[in-house]
Amino acid sequence: MAKYYCKWCGQHYSSIQNMSVLKCTKNPDGSKRHELYEGSEKSKYQCKWCGQSYSSLLSMAQLKCSKNPHHDRHEPLA
Question: Is 65 exposed, middle or buried (0-12, 13-18, 19+ CB in 10 A)?
Fold first, then answer.
């Protein structure tokens, strides 16, 4: 079964439809909806702003990024 991950909170869902209708408390955008992570599943995820590596999107989402010029969230490389 495929897993679809939110790029802001790291939660996974069984369908994009289920994910897209729910609100995400970590989304810095005004829509506050979950946003699809478009990369592949990996053993390590790297923040595109600070370069820090994390073992999961969920662990990346728990911490703030001081290098992101747009908001205070880590953003995974695809």
Answer: middle
Q: What is the pLDDT along the chain (78 residues), one digit of tens a residue?
A: 788 999 999 999 999 998 988 999 999 887 789 999 999 889 999 999 999 999 999 999 999 999 999 999 999 998
Contact in structure between 26 and 8 (CB atoms under 8 Å): yes
Q: Which two tokens stand for residue 47?
A: 């923040």
pTM for this prediction: 0.81
